[in-house]
Amino acid sequence: MDMPEFPQFHPAPPPDAEVLMPAQFIRHKRQLRAVLLDDEAWFVASDLARLINHPLQPERVQRNLDEDQLQRAWLRNSHGDYEEDLLISESGVYAVLILYYHPENRCIRQWLTQQVVPRLRHEARIGGQLPYRALMQWLDRELEVLHWRGNTWLQLRDCPRLLHTPPQVIG
Q1: Could you tell me the fold of the domain covering 8-126?
Q2: Where does the record place the Bro-N domain (predicted)?
Q3: Which residues partner with 138 through β-bridges?
Q4: Buried b (16+ CB within 10 A) or exposed e, 101-119
């Protein structure tokens, strides 16, 4: 996997590029931008480097993370400029926190798992953009449902479980 230095600023992305609008989180006056892609949290590598106060070396990050933990993406920064930057998956961020060990990283990990990732997922649900699974109590049973676009969806195979009495078989 050949990835150039991060970030790279450009006047505009290629016409076919998807530009992500990351959510912004602040810790100790430093920003950490994150996006939710397929219900997985991804973090901007250059922001993470500033947050842990350690420059991430691209070759070291690439060598120690798996390919599915890294990807390049086009982002719009807080100044409205376009930039191409490296994104690190949630599992990759935890690996980076170990790779660049510092005692404060434990607090950063806790902040990510207890505040950032849940808020990122919650905001995606509120926007109604992403379906999400939930458990619903029905009588004495627990059913898995899907919430999407203001509706609650139930799997067809769970419908018999909703009846008070077993269905009658005629014939």
Answers
A1: Mlu1-box Binding Protein; DNA-binding Domain (3.10.260)
A2: 18-124
A3: 141
A4: eeeebeebeebbeeebbee
